[in-house]
From TrEMBL:
Organism classification: Bacteria, Pseudomonadati, Bacteroidota, Flavobacteriia, Flavobacteriales
PANTHER family, alphabetized: DUF748 DOMAIN-CONTAINING PROTEIN (PTHR30441:SF8)
InterPro entries: AsmA-related
Bias type Basic and acidic residues, positions: 938-962
Record protein name field: Membrane assembly protein AsmA
Coiled coil: none
Keywords: Membrane, Transmembrane, Transmembrane helix
Organism, scientific name: Chryseobacterium caseinilyticum
Positions of region (Disordered): 927-962
Amino acid sequence: MKKLKTIILKIFKWTGIAIVTILFLMFIIPILFPGTISQQVKLFANKHLAGELDYKKTHLTFFRHFPSLTVSVDEFLLKGSKPFAKDTLLAAKEVAVGINLKNLIFDGEVKIDEIYVTDAVANVFVNTKGEANYNVYVSKPSDKPKDTAKGGASIKLDLIRLKNWNIKYHDLSARVLVDAKGLNYTGKGGLSEDVFDLQTDLDIDKLDFSLDRIYYAKQKTLHADLITRINTNALTFVLRKNELRLNELPLKFTGYLSILKDGYDLDIKAASEKTTIRDMISVLPPQYLEWAKDTKIQGNSDLFFSLKGKFSEAKNLKPDLKARLLVKEGFVSNAQAPVPMNNLNMDLNVALPALNTDELTIDLKNLSFDLGKSNSFRAVVKTKGLDEILVDAKIKGAVNLQTLDDALGLNEIDMKGFIDTDIQSNGIFNLDKKLFPKTKGYFNLKNGWLKTSYYPNAIQNINILANVSNTDGTFKSLGVKLDPFKFDFEGNPVFINADLQNFEDLLYKVRAKGTLNVGRIYKVFAKKGFDVSGLIMANLSLNGRQSYATTGQYSKLDNRGTLILKNIKATTETLPKSFFIREGNFEFENEKMWFRKFFANYGKSDFALNGHLINTINYFIERKGTLHGKFNLNSKYILVDEFMALKSGDNSKKSIDVEYAKVENPSSSGVVVIPKNLDVSLGVNARKVEFQGLGLNNVKGTASVNSGQVYLKNTTFDIIGSRMGIDARYQDESPLTANYDVAVKVQDFNVQRAYKEIDMIREVATSAKDVKGIVSIDYKLKGDFDKNMNPIYPSLEGGGVINLRDVEVKNLKMLSAVGSGIGSKGFNDPDMKGVDIETHIKNNLIHVDKFTFKVSVLRPSVSGTTSFNGLLDLLVRIGLPPGGWIGLPVVVTGTHEKPKIKFLSKNGQGITEALYNKKINKVIRQEQRAAKKTRRQQRLDKKAQENKAKSAEKQIDKNLKK
């Protein structure tokens, strides 16, 4: 016993010594090596990270991620790679790297073998050009032998642990969005080996996934337990163990992914076999999951998915997608249902070769269910293509809506009525080619009734009888008869009768009458954001043929009636805000739709219209139809800035081009996007129009919108106390760029006031600060707007004449320097009254034609070139008395602020023009001093530039005349 006691005491003793030693080393090692570790980690970061890195504090400790020795960085911030250097890529409460203790103690080397990131937000972004913000790791291979004497950290990872991440991956080139919240990830394996197995444990609390703005997963939970074989030499990932659960739906994956130089090569197969319908329903949007909890659901389902092929934006390669969903012997019943939904079967196949929607195939081989006696539904539908769709469909059923409602146990909707339908369709649907499948069928809803939990009153007495027929597969034999479509809502009956025949040249007979409270009808369906209780009142009778309007046979038309809108909100996909139609009173008279009263607001802007539209029937029939019209527009105030496409507003249904442009340029306003299907002229009378802080008062003239371009003709307005006349043309090229032509004439223009109040004058004519008095301007310009709708100066082309009608030019530095050189103070206050200055603009250079003025008995003349950035290359000829026949040549170079004077010389130093690419709206090179040339060569260069500018003036005239 004594011996045993001694052994036990020794064990405790040495164990205690070991523990104390370990604890001592844990405290002492961070003290001994802090400089080495911090210096080498910082060296590694500076050497290998292209993005800007920032953090608050660093710690070297064993206790944050026990028992690993870790360098921890608090409040970590890493910005993206170019061109996203100002945007955050990763922000985290803590980023820690584990240090290999053996290498640190015995070799004095810092080997990173673990990474921990906690409480992080990551934004991974790829723009429409395929440029990514995550290329921050820079590897610099070298042919030189490795120098082992140099210090520095290296990575040989065995563990990656991410805790509580929110990560957003937005790829605009592939139109993919992945948004994961509450992500926890552990990855183990020899991550630095050439080939290794990565063990992955992944949990996500909420996962969103969308493709082309269509959400396929919304707020789903995800768990993944994977083993992936990774080959770092070939950048290939092979799925070995692959168990994944999306909500309650289990999925298994097989396949591989290889990262290529310009994309991916992948072959992924996924399957969820022998699961239940309830498991399948768990992946539906969240609003349907509450319903599933209280509903008895039985039956089996299988899901198969594959994605195979190469993805390369540069080579226009995309993989093939296939999917199949099988539902067998389904049973759905609510506890209160007298009859369940029985024999629910579905076989749905989807194929998308090369992710090309033109080749999209949807094959619904079977969709069927029964709701007891005389209540059944069967559908077989196959389509191929999107713009041109090959259709083969058979749909037949007779369903009591109340029985369906009871069987499904829908809590938020009550339905009544009886639906009977029998439709067969086979052939090609193509709007452009005017093809329609051979079709025969009907849809009949009797005594319908619909009420939701969102609004207390029901839509009642819904009756729809629609017959469709097509005998030869063309629009010519297509007939649609709607007799009747009617319903009652809040005591207001609405009915529509329509008989439409021959869609190649539509023969129509439509009768519509009723009052509809739009705001309340939207509340029935819980549509958020429609906060206007608008009214639509119709009493219309439309009778005619489409060609009667297009060929001018207006006497054969019998279109009449009224349409009244009150307090209606409307949006378009290119404007950031909604139009609010306070009152719209429209009258139909054969070919014309008259605007008898129309009052609307858009943000701070107001509009009153009266006039008419032509081709309204054809416009709604033809997808590419154009609206023609003539109006008078009156307004108290129009703020152009509100119409810029990327401005903030309440419109959530913008086009994908506008949406992506905003994502890539969050701080930009964009340009105004013009509708392409309008041909409308407007007599404009606006009290004030404001653009970029510039106020135009009493605007009067003619504006027209045609094929996506806006024209102003004979338009006048007051600006800084002067009446200006303008002809102009404007056209957007994208939500971020636009081009324009403008011809301006103005009399009695106050130079000093213009310089103080107009930004463009200060930038274009910097010398105007030294000029006081009145001028007249006759000028023509064309150019481009940038993504903030500011003029791009190197894009400007054109020219014109400025008449110095009554001016004082004092202390202009260039002339004062010339005067100082010859001892004449008169150059500080020359007589320029009545002088015409003709200039031509091209590629950021302003070419000045020769003009002459008076300085006492002297007759100076000036010609040459200057630039928007202030460079000078001018020739001043000082005509000496008598008559100025004998001249003293002076060359002026330098800048407006620091002119350089050279007497008795005609050889200046030219200015090389800026280079501007109109296709990409980008300045390739700014103007700069040219290498010294002979005066003759300079004259030839200047002449060539002036000829280009004059050609631009002629083109402006042509554009404006169009």
